[in-house]
Design goal:
Keywords: Receptor, Transcription, Transcription regulation
CATH architecture: Orthogonal Bundle
Pfam family, one: Hormone_recep
Order of helices and strands: HHHHHHHHHH
Helix content: over 70%
CATH topology: Retinoid X Receptor
Distance between the termini: 35 Å
Strand content: under 5%
Protein name: NR LBD domain-containing protein
Domain NR LBD: 11-189
């Protein structure tokens, strides 16, 4: 059985956003100029991407454990993630949970994770990916001033990423390969939104703070 389940982790949304912003404020002083509304928008835009990032990082850190995981342990992990989250009287059997939700896990672990692990990115490159995702300036819910700050910070991140890879004597294509992981993570985010819709259809409880973020990202 999992140590944590879906409802429990979604209940940490407020804490997660506070921790993420504290790190952002420390690493990127320019963000201190942003209006509160822009700060909140950036965090809401990023949190679903964060949900894709941390399991990817866990897979990178524990690749052998995931690759050698037996089927019954894999299924226990899935059941444990949703188990205990159902509204009273709406519980699903273990077999039903596997039937409904395993395809989402399969897509993530077979299509999203392997290409990223295959790049063998270093920690500095992985952190660059995180911040490039955070400072996405393509959203419509941020002000023009915020767009400009995000655009400028992304330029700095890309420049430093390129310089890092040059210093490491990596091949020129590595920069493009690294940046292309953003598309994979965004693809994973869209699949995750589908999964959350299925959760709601099957009466899986999700914390209200997280529900609000899901609703905004569906608009």
């Amino acid at each position: 059985m999992n140590e944590y389940n879906l409802f429990m982790v979604t209940s940490w949304t407020k804490i997660d956003t506070e921790l993420i912003w504290n790190m952002t404020d420390k690493m990127f002083p320019a963000t201190r100029k942003l209006k509160i509304s822009d700060r909140k928008a950036l965090l809401r835009n990023f949190i679903l991407k964060f949900w894709q990032i941390w399991p990817i990082f866990d897979c990178i850190k524990n690749t052998e454990d995931y690759e050698s995981m037996k089927k019954n342990n894999y299924e226990k992990m899935i059941v444990g993630w949703y188990g205990g989250c159902f509204k009273e009287g709406k519980e699903m059997s273990n077999n039903e949970i596997i039937r409904v939700f395993e395809p989402f896990w399969s897509t993530f672990y077979s299509q999203i994770v392997p290409p990223i692990i295959g790049l063998k990115l270093e920690n500095e490159e992985l952190m660059a990916i995180v911040w490039l995702l955070f400072f996405d300036n393509a959203y419509t819910n941020i002000s023009p001033e915020c767009e400009e700050i995000c655009r400028n910070i992304k330029k700095v991140i890309l420049r430093e990423l390129k310089n890092y890879q040059i210093d490491k004597n990596f091949e020129e294509m590595r920069l493009l390969d690294t940046v292309e992981t953003l598309e994979l993570i965004e693809k994973s985010e869209q699949k995750f939104l589908e999964e959350m819709m299925i959760c709601e259809m099957h009466h899986v409880r999700i914390h209200d703070d997280f529900k609000a973020i899901l609703k905004e990202n569906r608009c």
